[in-house]
């Protein structure tokens, strides 16, 4: 596995890992995460694909900027796709899947395929909505623990028991560290609106959606909306898995991803 950096058009340095042989695959991770979350998957893909997994700006080894926008995320993806080469495949998870969707609306994938793992579209109103000011206030007051509690309960909509379990897990400190970066992403999600018909233009692209059957109702319905909006797209379901299938069942996730990529 090789650790390297590349420069985005606005001068932002992006940290990425490259591993494997075969067709190129760029992986865009989700919120409160970094590239290391995808190491279990790329370990399982390395015999079939050259994987490029990068830290989105503002986390891990990637630099942040004072100004943030979806356009900056799209430019970062374009930088990684150009690095990976013509006809590279593109995978996005959660907020990263929304970023890759927006990228695909503006850029051709050539013969590459787009795979979306549970993009959080606003299927029944704003995703953050009234919870966003409370989340912002907790972050600005220096209490990321409380902020995450608000977001997980009111935005992601997981149970109190699941939140309590996460608080006791070794990943909680890292989630708290990354929590401030989620605010701006929640703003961008709600700004996208609910006109999913604009995805119809991706009809000529090779688009697949992956979801876990045990994911939240909002994410489950979001996957349905994408498949319905993009003619010819394909849906892959992972039984009893949730939004973190890439971490919890990497073998099964990787097999579904290989199918989506036509391997």
Number of strands: 8
Identify the CATH homologous superfamily of the largest domain.
Answer: Alpha/Beta hydrolase fold, catalytic domain
The ordered string of helix (H) and strand (E) elements is EEEHEHEHEHHHHHEHEHH
- Strand proportion, as a percent range, falls in 15-25%
Helix content: 40-55%
Any guess at the CATH architecture of the largest domain? Answer: 3-Layer(aba) Sandwich
First CA to last CA: what distance? 22 Å
Mean pLDDT: 94
- This entry's quaternary arrangement is single chain
Q: What kind of sheet is the major sheet? A: 8 strands, mixed
Shape: globular
Give the CATH class of the largest domain. Alpha Beta
Summarize, please.
The protein has 263 residues and is α/β, with parallel strands linked by helices.
Describe the structure.
GO terms for molecular function: hydrolase activity. Keywords: Hydrolase. This is Alpha/beta hydrolase. It comes from Corynebacterium suranareeae. It holds the Pfam family Abhydrolase_6. This protein has 263 residues and is α/β, with parallel strands linked by helices. It has 2 domains: 2-123 and 194-260, Rossmann fold; 131-187. It is 42% helix and 17% strand. The protein has helices spanning 39-45, 70-84, 95-106, 131-140, 144-154, 160-167, 172-178, 180-191, 217-229, 245-248, 250-260, and strands at 2-7, 13-19, 24-28, 50-54, 89-93, 113-117, 206-212, 234-238. Strands 1-2-4-3-5-6-7-8 form an 8-stranded mixed β-sheet, sandwiched between helices. The longest helix has 15 residues, at 70-84.
Question: Which helices and strands occur, and which strands form pairs?
Answer:
Layout: E1 2-7, E2 13-19, E3 24-28, H1 39-45, E4 50-54, H2 70-84, E5 89-93, H3 95-106, E6 113-117, H4 131-140, H5 144-154, H6 160-167, H7 172-178, H8 180-191, E7 206-212, H9 217-229, E8 234-238, H10 245-248, H11 250-260
Parallel strand pairs: 3-4, 3-5, 5-6, 6-7, 7-8
Antiparallel strand pairs: 1-2, 2-4
Helix pairs in contact: 1-11, 2-3, 4-5, 4-8
